[in-house]
């Protein structure tokens, strides 16, 4: 599954060493961590997989386990009469239920009924908010059956227990109307006139229960038959093979599908609608077709998914197992949360569709989603995880398969770039929390579908591939898939297959990298001994093992390569090995050199080890590595370190080298680093690149980096918008318009307003218009705010007038941004409060108060925007929407939004002061940056007098910064109750003079952020204590 959360199943792991007790024959050149046996003597303590992780799970979270499987459904028949226009379905589900035990359930003592005996008499189905009309059982010899339904679970009990291996049939008659999850209905209406008529299911992780009585956990898998009755003009799709279409006298027809493979509930899927269809070339006789609603075209379907046949041929060869499905269909729908790997019927959000222009900037991304979901054919569908904590066996694998597709079909550099991005994504989440890859303690199974599971787990698989080598690794994968076809697996099952193929003991690796949290952070130091022509690279692991990181290993065991390139281009190699046995967190690589001087150093040049690197060997080595480095990752690191240094010489080198950098992927990461720097030199490089960069994917990284206010940036953004759309593509134009609004130049407001009403600036899926709306929000003007209000708040507003349904997302967030940060041109506190209240009412009307036709994504955006506005007066309505419009797996995350809103309070006067100060600091920071440019220019030209004058100007401007600083202090004092009455008179503490912010741009922004966060924390403390202005 590809999730939209930035975009995130349970079980009981067997003893880790089970099946591995015999001593394995180990090659002599194997890293030491795989030779020693010390990990087999485990300390008797609670495993880290059971401990609640701070920041990931709440304190009341507890370990979750797979259900006991005694009475097990083995085949499911779904008879459903679907009325799309009335958002309802009525029918019956028949479960074939077998007693999986081979022994009779005899009580252990006379007075004890025994758990097994109880479990052979009853079964519990998940069934949320269904109308259960009756339950019956056959054959008659099974005896009477009773049931209890509490609105969430349906417990069925037979009078007589099942005999060993006995099979019985259970029929549940029910209906469902407008379910909040699982089954989604799309019906055109006044607000959504172009919406395609259809319904579709989307289940992961626990949402089948909202329309189908089932055991909604992955360990329970059944074969399937569908009998779907629907309007005769519509098309029905489902898992498996179409075996009959029967016309009915009342103008309906019944479409019948059969799937003989075992399927867990989260992979059950059907869809009915008025679809456009494209039939691609079959693979080995297997039909391949793509579907979408009628607002899209066959050409767009072919353009979006046309590489599917080639991907299937590659994938089955890569894993060594034939493709198992009778067909391969893919469907696009706006109600799909990302993409979902349902057996033989994959579903995607329609945001992944492309036209000819969008294909240039996003076609590669759609390809990766396509191959990701296809990878689940083997990892997750053919072989199913037993419970949610082993989700990495499917999601990590699908993520890695997507990278392998790039390696074999695009380029080695793109594969390396994909793994670098995977590492960055994982590291970013580790700033919030660090958990083991296998984690049994959580609040919601959906929480496990995070960046630890997707990119973090993919990196573990990648490391295992390097440890075993190509031949043994892929042979183990083939064995794993064949051995566990149509079965459930746990992490230890995969581990055993790897050990069998390699004769390696992988327990140390799995203990450190899978069952323990964290990853190594490495600090490196470089020394060249010219007398002995020896390069010494010392490495130290610095990851924290205290506090939240207490379970992180102090030493991760691995061997890491070091390559040194000399002035003649020759490469010399060394390596360093970390071992827990030595007890040292340090290791050293010695690299003997030739006669030429070393000029570049690459650590882990083939990207074998997941780690964060701190390595600053000096500007010359960094610049040479950026220029002559062979490895993409080390070139990126060298550029980033030069940018962090921020000196005039290092930034000049970045500018010169970037112009000749051949790989767009390196330029992507350099642009991102320049955007984070925001120094005057970085701004200058970004501004020049806006005019020179031609690669679409590099531009997609460059435009977000061009977010700072600067005349040269503004000119560069305008130059982008003056290019033909075919050269820039939709998302690039969207971000250009958004950042143009951030310039807050009065001349640009009119440009944005014109673009808002220009049909040529809508873009596929409304992408460009969405950027225009966000740009207007950043201008902070009354005209822009009025335009945003009219876009969302007019009586005649429809998805047609917006340009596309997804424009709602941008319009909602833009209106909230304008009212909360830009103030919409308001000047008084009362006017600003009124704007916020009005904006909140408009957003509430189109989201939490709107009818059944609102996309869940739009409703969620509304809730987040209302929280950003501090709409405490709507807290009750928001809470009702969360509880009645979202599945339980999403309510946990949305509840956190509610808590923040409740603690943060509304848009009162104090919040207003902080927002105004944020704007003031931004403006003053821009002024100081412009003066920095003058100082730098003066220094380079060696004009001493001019330099002194510019420096004096900076000092003079600092008075304004000091004034803003004093304002922040005043707000902070107000938050913390500095005003006191002493001796009957009100006295105010005189603010102590504070030092000016640092001169370097990056440090200065961090300094201001800390000051403002102090102010904001004070506001939250006031709210928690019952204080705060304008409390409602």
Describe how the helices and strands are arranged:
Layout: E1 62-63, E2 71-83, E3 88-99, H1 115-119, E4 122-126, E5 131-138, E6 145-149, E7 153-158, E8 167-177, E9 183-186, E10 198-201, E11 221-231, E12 235-238, E13 241-247, E14 252-264, E15 270-273, E16 275-283, E17 286-293, H2 298-305, H3 308-319, E18 328-333, E19 339-340, E20 345-349, H4 358-375, E21 384-385, H5 392-409, H6 412-430, E22 441-442, H7 452-468, H8 470-483, E23 488-489, H9 491-502, H10 507-513, E24 521-529, E25 534-541, E26 558-566, E27 571-578, E28 586-592, E29 598-603, E30 612-615, H11 619-628, H12 632-645, H13 648-660, H14 664-677, H15 680-692, H16 696-705, H17 711-721, H18 725-728, H19 730-742, H20 746-756, H21 767-779, H22 782-793, H23 799-802, H24 807-822, H25 829-846, H26 856-868, H27 875-885, H28 888-904, H29 909-940, H30 944-975, E31 980-982, E32 985-987, H31 1001-1024
Parallel strand pairs: 2-11, 17-18, 18-20, 21-23, 24-30
Antiparallel strand pairs: 1-22, 2-3, 3-8, 4-7, 5-8, 6-7, 9-10, 10-15, 11-14, 12-15, 13-14, 16-17, 19-20, 24-25, 25-28, 26-27, 26-29, 31-32
Helix pairs in contact: 3-4, 4-5, 5-6, 5-7, 6-7, 7-8, 8-9, 11-12, 11-13, 12-13, 12-14, 14-15, 14-16, 15-17, 16-19, 17-19, 19-21, 20-21, 21-22, 21-24, 22-24, 24-25, 24-26, 25-26, 26-28, 27-28, 29-30, 29-31, 30-31
